[in-house]
Amino acid sequence: MKKTFCLVFAGLFLMQAAACAQPIEPDLSAYGTAAPAEIPMEILGELDEETLADLVEEPKYVALTFDDGPRADTTSELLDGLLERGAAATFFVVGEQVPHNECLIRRMKSEGHQIGNHTYSHVRLKTADKDSVVEEIQKSEVLLREASGEGSFWLRPPYGAIDSQKAKLIKTPMIYWSVDPQDWKLLDSQKVVDAVLSTVQPGDIILLHDFYPTSVAAALEIIDRLREDGYAFVTVEELFRIQGVTPQPGVLYARPDRVRTLS
Ligand code: NI
Fold first, then answer.
1. Which residues are designated catalytic?
2. Which of 47, 66, 133, 233 could form a disulfide with 210 if both were Cys (CB 3.0 to 4.6 A apart)?
3. CB-CB neighbours of 83 under 10 Å
4. Contact 61/105 with Cβ under 8 angstroms?
5. What's residue 47's pLDDT?
6. Which residues 6+ apart lie within 8 Å of 34 measured at CB?
7. Alpha-carbon gap, residue 3 to 130, rounded angstroms
8. Distance CA 82, CA 80 (A)
9. Cα of 75 to ligand 1 centre, how many Å?
10. What integer pLDDT is reported at residue 15 of this predicted model?
11. Can you list the alpha helix ranges (DSSP code H) found in the chain?
């Protein structure tokens, strides 16, 4: 913005100079070298602590991820809540649940969410043979592509479990998590909210399941509460981009800055 203004200003200055009988050569050396804005100490000194913290603090980003959907009622309710709040999320979808729920997949895509693959029938990839691993992933990809168009559907292995041999078959990055409130076990939205809020850090990938009404309620409250604390909600892909990390195929990430060692 500032740079555009400078260029427009420089342009006007040049036009004016051209109209003059004796053109003045503007000194453009100061333009294009703009450093990040610095707030002078005399201004900082007069601000109250809270405003100061807001100005100085780095933005805090986290990624909410939802596994095991889509489920018609709970996933639509979640999408409504995310839209209302302008929050993005990532959905690791189970392929066999895509038929009859294609409209939800299309909605995820059109509302700026990331769609990932959670295999076709939620298999344990560690114990499946190599052919089944490939088939489980491809079958799901075809359905996701038909519903939402071309894209790279990153994998979240069911149970977060995959070994190094099977990982070699995976052509996309793989996403684990760094915060797991065990929402599927608690089935209590308040307990899930508390479990997340007590551990969450900027850069975290939070694991939830859009399959449970209690998890949907918890997710929306987590957004409202963390927002008050300066957090913004982005897709997993965006979290990597913000942190300047290019995720590699076949590598399992707990966060953009943390890789899981595979056995
Ligand atoms: Ni799962």
1. 67, 209
2. 66
3. 13
4. no
5. 73
6. 2, 3, 6
7. 54
8. 6
9. 15
10. 42
11. 2-19, 41-44, 49-56, 72-85, 102-110, 130-148, 164-167, 183-186, 189-197, 213-228, 236-242
Mean residue pLDDT across the chain: 88
182 contacts 218 by C-beta, under 8 angstroms: no
Confidence of residue 51 (pLDDT cuts 50, 70, 90): confident
Residue 67 corresponds to which tokens in the numbers above? 């596994």
Cβ distance 178 to 205 under 8 Å?
yes
Taking the centre of ligand 1 as the mean of its atom positions, its distance from the CA of residue 3, in whole angstroms, is 47
Residue 248 Cα to ligand 1 middle (Å): 22
Secondary structure percentages of the chain, helix, strand, coil, to 5: 45, 15, 40
Closest CA to 157 of 198, 201, 109, 116: 116
Distance 20 CA to ligand 1 centre (A): 72
Query: What is the C-alpha separation between 26 and 13, in angstroms, rounded?
Result: 7
Q: Per-residue pLDDT tens for 144-167?
A: 999 999 999 999 999 999 999 999
CB 66 within 8 A of CB 219: yes
